[in-house]
Design brief:
- The structure holds two protein chains of two kinds.
- A two-stranded antiparallel ribbon of chain A has the order 1-2.
- Chain A is flat and about 75 Å long.
- In chain A, 77% of the residues lie in helices and 1% in strands.
- By secondary structure, chain A is an all-alpha fold.
- The N terminus and C terminus of chain A are likely disordered.
- In chain A, helix 5 runs antiparallel to helix 10, helix 8 packs across helix 10 and helix 9 runs antiparallel to helix 10.
- By secondary structure, chain B is an alpha/beta fold.
- Chain B has two domains: 146 residues, 3-Layer(aba) Sandwich (D-Maltodextrin-Binding Protein, domain 2); 145 residues, Periplasmic binding protein-like II (D-Maltodextrin-Binding Protein, domain 2), CATH 3.40.190.
- Chain B is 41% helix and 18% strand.
- Chain B is built from 14 helices and twelve strands.
- Chain B has an eight-stranded mixed sheet with strand order 2-1-3-10-4-7-5-6, sandwiched between helices.
- In chain B, helix 12 runs antiparallel to helix 14.
- Chain B is globular, with a radius of gyration of 24 Å.
- The termini of chain B are far apart.
- About 2% of the residues of chain B have low confidence.
- The chains are: A mainly alpha, B alpha/beta.
- Chains A and B meet through helix 3, strand 1, helix 7 and helix 12 of A and helix 1, helix 3, strand 6 and helix 9 of B.
Chain lengths: 335, 363
């Protein structure tokens, strides 16, 4: 004990090498363990970096023919025609973003509702089975969601939800057109159901992490349950935003379930009932059969675009989170 | 002490895991003659997959040493596998183009195995007898010129049917496929407008915007049609039959409405014998005969004339011989039309010509 004290005092005002030597002398097992540990960590970091660089590099080099042939027009082109070898990625970018945003718009209020109920309101006996059920949803393979989408959701939208929307909101271009049950709206709803458990689970953890004292303080000040929840949500804002970003990421990359219900038609239509196409879907559908070089190269380029779209959307979402949470904590401090 | 112990444990674990991964990575399938068995790998078209799998099973009883694995990844994948020699044989519904053949590493042979048909199927309530279509009507539906089921042109093809005034939704293949190639091959033959608006025949189809729902695979299109009222689309014959969907008779080049059956599909091939070249690469859509179903096609296995591995080549050649002779009865059980006998003779000549190191494999 006394030895440690003396060395701690001695470390003040000495060089790094000396400090290193002292630490080495103090360590009973020597530094081999630390060195190996550091090598292992370094190797892990190197591997992940190498994978990212390798992937982007490979995609870029394979996408070169398409980049050279179409240039910037690939991003803005609306025509995707493998028959005539003309490729434009805009319908896929549009389909990916709109279906994912639609999914988040539907999933976020529901997930927040479930999470708040589980943490703030429900008795433990009810909360635990419900939480388990929600987590179970996350474990269902996406192809099963797709099947459910075809057999249950699509007919439901065609025969019930669609006609109601057209009757009351039919004046909006969003809800015009043929009702087949297959299209952007069905894709968005399937995605929403798939990302709800993810968002719910994370928000639940975030809410649980908010100190009980916060709630007690609010209640002591005479706040209602709703007002107390608002205080808790304020505290958890950044965590909730993080959950939404993760859900959005999952929605953008989802392939199988969307392919089965979105209609796979490369077009940009104002109507949510019309078929659309996402980047992940077109890749999954066409990779095996793309024998032509320019076609294959265009598919790889569109994969690269998915990379970039995910990156930008996540970046934007994080930016949004930062501004929202900064504003929140600012007002909280002022008040 | 305990910390560094854990570090060592962790490292040891990591290393052993890496070793495990490496050992898996290094143990490539030997694919050779381990214990007398010969393993063959085939990749290609999904349409003949059910019969190929049946043949593989049955042939295993005849020659227990033959272990053939067929992966149905699509005609395009089959062509690629044959070109790059990533499998022992490829399979494709449509014959390879001259350009594709140039990319092969040697002389590739087309061995037709069975015949198939692409059928027009639909989901329309209240129609008992299968509707029939002329090529002009199909053209107009797929190009969006006919929007309703009670259109005058559909009525003209089906004078007795009572048709509802519902919107038509077209279902097409969103993935590249041999089925689409056979269908577009037919459409480009019968409609100049199709050639101009949709483009030349091929594994892909690009319909005008706002028309249609894309689905992946024959099973995807079948599922979409089965579950969505007022839809119409094209699938391989067996998919429509197995799912109990209506199968439309199509007006052929002689003006007769012909239902696809084993006989009418075989007739389409038989009527085209005079036009069949020596390499057997031929399109039999819009065939001449009165009894011919117009959207018919051969499906092929692609193999190199000179086999690198004599043992594998021998098994492959014997298997194909067996399939096109003794295997015919299994094909008929599964609703694949058999090859005309003249074509079987040509297949025999081809199989006899396959060599390995200059020696013919078939004796």
């Amino acid at each position: 004990m006394s030895q440690v004290q003396t060395t701690t005092q001695a470390t003040e005002g000495i060089t790094a090498t000396q400090r290193w030597n002292i630490r080495r002398a103090l360590s009973q097992t020597g530094t081999t363990g630390d060195a190996v540990f550091r090598i292992v960590l370094f190797a892990s970091v190197f591997i992940i970096l190498a994978i990212v660089v390798g992937m982007v590099g490979m995609m870029l080099s394979n996408a070169m023919p398409a980049i050279k042939h179409f240039g910037f027009g690939f991003l803005t082109g609306k025509n995707w025609d493998p028959v005539r070898n003309e490729f434009g990625a805009l319908p896929f970018i549009y389909g990916t973003i709109v279906s994912s945003v639609l999914a988040v718009l539907i999933a976020v209020p529901i997930s927040l509702g479930i999470a708040i109920f589980l943490v703030e309101q429900a008795p433990r006996k009810i909360a635990q089975p419900i939480a388990f059920l929600v987590e179970l949803l996350a474990a269902i393979p996406s192809v099963v969601y797709g099947l459910w989408g075809i057999f249950v959701l699509a007919p439901f939208i065609r025969e019930h939800l669609g006609p109601i929307l057209q009757k009351y909101l039919g004046w909006l271009p969003l809800f015009q057109g043929k009702l087949t049950g297959i299209g952007m709206l069905t894709g968005g709803i399937i995605l929403a159901i798939m990302i709800t458990p993810i968002i719910t689970a994370i928000v639940r953890d975030v809410l649980t992490a908010v100190p009980v004292t916060q709630r007690e303080a609010a209640l002591a000040l005479g706040a209602t349950k709703w007002e107390t929840t608002k205080v808790v949500l304020d505290n958890a804002a950044s965590g909730i935003a993080g959950a939404i970003v993760l859900g959005l990421g999952r929605a953008i990359g989802e392939t199988m379930a969307v392919t089965m219900v979105i209609g796979n038609m490369p077009q940009i239509s104002a109507s949510l009932f019309e078929p659309a196409y996402t980047i992940a879907s077109v890749l999954a559908s066409n990779f095996a059969e793309a024998t032509d070089e320019l076609y294959l190269s265009s598919l790889i380029l569109i994969g690269l675009i998915l990379f970039v779209v995910t990156f930008i959307v996540n970046g934007l979402a994080k930016l949004l989170v930062m501004t929202v949470t900064r504003g929140k904590s600012g007002t909280a401090k002022a008040a | 002490m305990s910390v560094s112990n854990k570090v060592f444990q962790f490292t040891a674990l990591l290393l052993s895991f890496l070793l495990l991964v490496l050992s898996f990575a290094c143990s490539k399938p030997t694919g050779g003659n381990s214990g007398g068995a010969v393993k063959l790998q085939g990749v290609g078209a999904t349409f003949p997959a059910p019969i190929y799998k049946k043949w593989v099973d049955e042939y295993g009883k005849v020659n227990p040493n033959a272990q053939i694995d067929y992966q149905s990844q699509g005609s395009g994948a089959g062509v690629k596998a044959a070109q790059n020699q990533t499998a022992d044989f490829g399979a494709s519904d449509a014959p390879m183009s001259d350009e594709d053949l140039k990319q092969a590493k040697g002389e590739l042979l087309h061995i037709p195995t069975v015949l198939g048909a692409v059928v027009i199927t639909y989901n329309l309530a209240g129609v008992s007898k299968p509707l029939q279509f002329s090529p002009e009507t199909i053209n107009d539906i797929f190009l969006g010129k006919i929007q309703k089921w009670d259109d005058a042109k559909i009525k003209a093809d089906n004078p007795d049917a009572t048709l509802p005034a519902n919107d038509i939704s077209v279902v097409f293949r969103s993935d590249g496929s041999g089925t689409t190639e056979v269908f577009t091959d037919y459409m480009t033959k019968v409609s100049p407008e199709w050639k101009e608006k949709v483009g030349p025949k091929g594994k892909n189809i690009k319909l005008p915007e706002g028309i249609g729902i894309g689905a992946k695979g024959n099973e995807g299109v079948t599922g979409q049609i089965k579950n969505t009222p007022n839809t119409i689309g094209y699938v391989e014959f067996i998919y429509a039959k197995q799912n109990g969907l209506p199968i439309a008779p199509i007006k052929n080049s002689t003006g007769k409405f012909i239902e696809p059956t084993l006989e009418t599909v075989s007739a389409a091939a038989a009527e085209m014998l005079a036009d069949t070249p020596e390499d057997l690469r031929v399109s039999i859509t819009n065939s001449k005969g009165e009894k011919a179903y117009p959207i018919s096609s051969y499906t092929y296995i692609l193999i190199y004339k000179d086999q690198k591995d004599a043992a594998k080549g021998k098994v492959l050649v014997d298997f194909l011989w067996w399939a096109t002779h003794d295997g015919v009865k299994f094909a008929q059980e599964k609703d694949y039309a058999p090859l005309p006998s003249e074509i079987v003779k040509k297949v025999e000549t081809k199989l006899n010509a396959i060599t390995s190191g200059g020696k013919p494999l078939r004796q």
